[in-house]
Design goal:
Largest sheet: 5 strands, antiparallel
Shape: globular
Strand content: 25-35%
Radius of gyration: 25 Å
Helix content: 25-40%
Structural class: alpha/beta
Number of helices: 11
CATH class of the largest domain: Alpha Beta
CATH topology of the largest domain: Beta-lactamase
CATH superfamily of the largest domain: DD-peptidase/beta-lactamase superfamily
Length: 466
């Protein structure tokens, strides 16, 4: 090895070995049996202040969303909007009759929901946005539709399950299937309350009140004992079996169950809203999908109604503040999918050999990145300003509202959380009193049974603020 190169490597090692920050971090992590990866980058000059297994691969969990939302910002821009349209093959005939089908065409907009936008705004009714489209159809003079109501999500091929997702994930809201036509964030809420007396079945309600799934309720009310609820969505059907027991004194249980086919769900809801407005529908509600490899169908006809989403930055803020998996998957597909993201990352110095992506949310166990790759991403000036604004604020909001609180150092941290069985992660930015703004990544894998992992992660992050 050339003497100069040897000297540089030796000097860098000496700095880290004698670094007080490194010593403090090592002390915090002493005795923990998980695999830790840490990388800390000083943004003003690109200096790595600390690294621990910085080039090792880790399952990142939901901090994957930093990669996908950064890519979406770079590819589409903060001010972009997504549209949903209602189209017929021709204008309404005499007396407002549509001779063929009416298509509800998804444009990848995930905001057809009751969630308030911008982040933190009051919620609205779950079907309010779809009802506004139905109002436009009625205002266009439509009185009868002789064909079907098509829920058209052909903008993207129908691939509802990314590689590496667990089959069990698909039942619940965090594993909702991505579709270019999405209503109510792909979920419905099931609520159980005890029956009037022990021995009776629990009372079940569904919100929104759309008859979509068949519920097989086998939950029994008991006089005393623990609540035990099991929910199974039967494969290949729209039947949900709910079994177990609920004590008579229980306040109730609620769960968010994923729609199996969001385009079908949206079509059915839209048909009901049209009928409520006095529009007769002779056909059925059905989904229109596009298989992988099939071309995008041509759009011909007349637009009867249209809705635009809020600006993209507001959607990305919801994704990162509350770690919304479905929205992350939808925004990734809108920007070009995982292949587009891989190309973008290669262009900013993160080659395919240093990061593997199978999804945009982090739910896949096949996704793997290194702490060094993460801080390299966060150092990109093109997206950093907007990205920071979308992140949870320590002790203030989002998934960090109850973390990093009670200590002034925590308020200097804007970061994305991540977690699944055996995995805990945190990555983002911290304003250090000594070094200015830092990008950091703290990854923990093989974390089985350590109850204080999140606390230690937060302690490391607060050390960085000093």
């Amino acid at each position: 090895m050339p003497r100069l190169l040897f000297f540089i490597f030796a000097f860098a090692w000496t700095l880290e070995a004698g670094d007080p920050l490194a010593a403090k971090i090592d002390q915090l992590l002493a005795g923990h049996r998980g695999q830790w990866g840490v990388s800390v980058l000083k943004l003003s000059d690109g200096q790595i202040l600390h690294r621990r297994c910085g080039d090792c691969f880790f399952t990142p969990a939901s901090v994957t969303k930093l990669f996908s939302t950064s890519y979406v910002l770079a590819r589409l821009g903060a001010d972009s909007r997504l549209s949903t349209r209602v189209m017929a093959s021709e204008p309404p005939a005499e007396h407002g009759v549509i001779r063929g089908a009416l298509s509800l065409i998804g444009g990848g907009d995930p905001t057809l929901t009751g969630r308030g936008y911008p982040y933190g705004s009051p919620d609205t009714m779950p079907f309010a946005a779809l009802a506004a489209l139905a109002d436009q159809v009625a205002a266009a003079g439509v009185t009868r539709i002789e064909g079907d109501i098509l829920g058209d999500d052909t903008l993207w091929p129908w691939e509802p399950v990314p590689d590496g997702w667990s089959h069990d994930d698909l039942t619940w809201d965090y594993g909702a299937a991505p579709s270019a036509l999405m209503l109510n964030e792909g979920v419905l809420q099931i609520t159980l309350r005890p029956g009037a007396r022990p021995g009776e079945l629990a009372r079940v309600t569904v919100q929104p009140p759309l008859e979509y799934f068949t519920l097989d309720n086998r939950v029994t009310t008991v006089a005393a004992g623990p609540r035990q609820i099991r929910v199974i969505r039967m494969p290949g059907s729209r039947q949900i079996q709910i079994s177990g027991q609920i004590p008579a004194s229980d306040a109730g249980w609620s769960g968010l169950v994923a729609q199996d086919d969001p385009a079908q769900y949206a079509a059915q809801a839209f048909k009901e809203l049209l009928v409520e407005r006095g529009i007769a529908v002779e056909g059925v509600a059905r989904a229109r999908h596009r298989a992988v490899g099939e071309p995008l169908p041509a759009r011909h006809g007349v637009t009867l109604a249209e809705r635009s989403s809020p600006p993209l930055i507001e959607i990305l803020t919801v994704i990162n503040k509350v770690s919304q998996n479905l929205l992350a998957e939808m925004m990734l597909r809108s920007a070009g999918g995982t292949e587009g993201m891989r190309e973008y990352l290669a262009g900013i110095g993160i080659p395919r050999s240093e990061a593997r992506f199978e999804d945009g949310s982090g739910l896949s166990r096949l996704t793997a990145v290194s702490p060094n790759s993460m801080v390299r991403l966060l150092s990109q000036k093109q997206t950093a300003g907007n990205l920071i604004s979308t992140l949870p604020h320590g002790g203030v909001d989002g998934s960090l509202k109850r973390r990093l609180s009670g200590d002034r150092r925590g308020n200097r941290i804007r970061a994305k959380t991540g977690g699944m069985t055996g995995v805990k992660t945190l990555a983002g930015y911290v304003d250090s009193a000594t070094h200015g703004r830092l990008a950091f990544a703290i990854f923990v894998n093989n974390d089985h049974g350590a109850i204080d992992t999140v606390k230690r992660i937060d302690q490391v992050a607060m050390l960085l603020s000093e």
